Amino acid sequence: MKSYIKILIYTCSIISIISTTKANDDPNKKRKILSFGGNGMIGSNTLETLIATNKYDITLVSRGSWPFDTSTSIKPYVNHVFCDRDIGLENCGTLVEDISNTTEYYAVLDFSGFLPSWIEDAVKVLKGKVRVYVYVSSDSVYEVCGDGKPLGKYGKLVETDAVRPFDDNIMRKLNEKDEYGDEKLGGEEVLVNQAVMDEDGDGDSFPYVILRYADVIGQRDATDRFATYVMWAMLQQMPPANPDDIPNPAPVPDLHVPNDILERSSITYVNDATQSIISSIYMPDTWNEAYNIASAQIFNVTNAIEMIATSVYTSQYENKINYKPKVIKVDADDGIAMYPSVTRGPVNIEKAITKLKFRPTPMNQIISNTVDWYLQIFESDLDYRDVVIEEWEDNLFQDSNLFSNRVHDKVMQHIWSQMSSNSAGDYYDGDGSPTFYYDDDDEEDDEDEEEL
Question: I want to staple 330 with a disulfide (CB 3.0 to 4.6 A). Which of 285, 291, 335, 394 is the partner?
Fold first, then answer.
């Protein structure tokens, strides 16, 4: 309940921003929004907020996957256009018709623009039709810029650091090391170039906003990175045979991180991502700029895991004791780490605070809200819960020298024996081998969901 109330308060505050903004057109006429993607983590959160205002006519372009609850929270309230960006937007007849029938999109939101060629394609078909183009980018762009090396102890990356190296050999090596960062930066470059180079002089270029998110944390994360840590903490705290013996000394491996983990990075809360997108739509003086959007606090993954485990514990037990989670460091080749996805360091968000009036959510609230959401979905959706257990098992035990097959088997037998409903009987076939629930969705559909 407390998680729902926090989300409700957040939604009301965003709606207030929209409702109190003076419109240049008929306030009773719905504004058209074109959304590339919008069924993934950041996209669904943003569209859900816009839908709640009843002020927008939203066209969502994707290949049709509806993860988590988006088939009921998003799909009925948008005009869904099926289109695979790989084949070219001009080959998607329904989309071409929508564009032809639209004088101007109040905003184009690009959540799924992974390749520069896709952005070039969008620029080509949308000429003269866009009030502002909001591009969801990533702090991964900094991985292919400068010398690519980690920052100093107190360093932070600023927006102007996103400049490719002049040395072609260094550029090639960095691009090979982080293909995603290279492609995201390439998409940014397309938008910048179209804005400053109106080759045919027809004035059809359009303004843009580039929002660089760090690893995104929050509800509906299809990567299951945060979910893995919540599950790990839950498994460690499973009730023992003697309910007075808490926390449970179960044979579940310690929470750990590799000994070479980057301890200074940034994270972005999904609600903060939505805040930045909506703010940018309504603030023309912020256009044609890039912004880092992240928590104000440095993200230390070891501390974050401790916070997750503590939050899981305090959510599960009414009679709380002085619980202190244990996070150890292990050999880099054997340990797992869900975060961070970058190697250079944290980002500076002063520009977003000053120009976008960005107000980041405190780290402890981000962790608490997100843990609450996953605890609720693990309870309500046992299939999803069990998929996360399977992913945790694969991540922890596969290719690791920390655990023998015997230990692996013992741990999993203990876990499945403690699971309710879809428990051990459903996970062991006739010969005693475990069987698991798999998601039948095409893996390619994941491209319609933002990397978090």
Answer: 335
For residue 400, pLDDT beyond 70: yes
- Range in 190-199, 298-307, 360-369 the model is least confident about: 190-199
Rounded to 5 degrees, φ, ψ at 233 are -65, -40
Of 127, 162, 166, 128, give the one whose Cα is nearest residue 145.
162
Asked if pLDDT for residue 431 goes beyond 70, the answer is no
Mean pLDDT of 290-304: 97
Radius of gyration of the chain (CA): 23
Give the global pTM. Answer: 0.86
How far apart, in whole angstroms, are the C-alpha atoms of residue 278 and residue 268?
Answer: 16
Give the position of tokens 């100093």.
152
Q: Name the token pair of 327.
A: 């996070």
Whole-angstrom distance, CA of residue 133 vs CA of residue 188: 11
Write b or e for each residue in 170-187: b if 16 or more Cβ atoms lie within 10 A of its Cβ, otherwise e: ebeebbeebeebbbbbbb
Helices marked H in 248-361 — which ranges? 270-281, 301-316, 350-355
Give the closest residue to 338 by CA, choosing from 180, 223, 450, 225.
225
Which homologous superfamily does the CATH classification assign to the domain defined by 10-217+267-297? Answer: NAD(P)-binding Rossmann-like Domain (3.40.50.720)
Q: Do residues 183 and 114 touch, judged by C-beta distance below 8 A?
A: yes
For 56-66, what is the mean pLDDT?
95
Domain range list for the chain: 10-217+267-297
Cα dihedral angle (47, 50, 55, 57), rounded to 10 degrees?
-10
Give Cβ neighbours of residue 60 (< 8 Å, ≥ 6 apart).
Answer: 35, 37, 38, 39, 47, 74, 78, 79, 80, 81
Q: Where are the alpha helices (DSSP H) in 398-452?
A: 405-418, 424-427
Percent of the chain with pLDDT over 90: 70
pLDDT band at 417 (very low <50, low <70, confident <90, very high): confident
pLDDT tier at 240, thresholds 50, 70, 90: low
Of the ranges 57-61, 138-142, 253-257, which one carries the lowest mean pLDDT score?
Answer: 253-257
> Alpha-carbon distance 221 to 161, whole Å?
28
Largest CA distance in the chain: 77
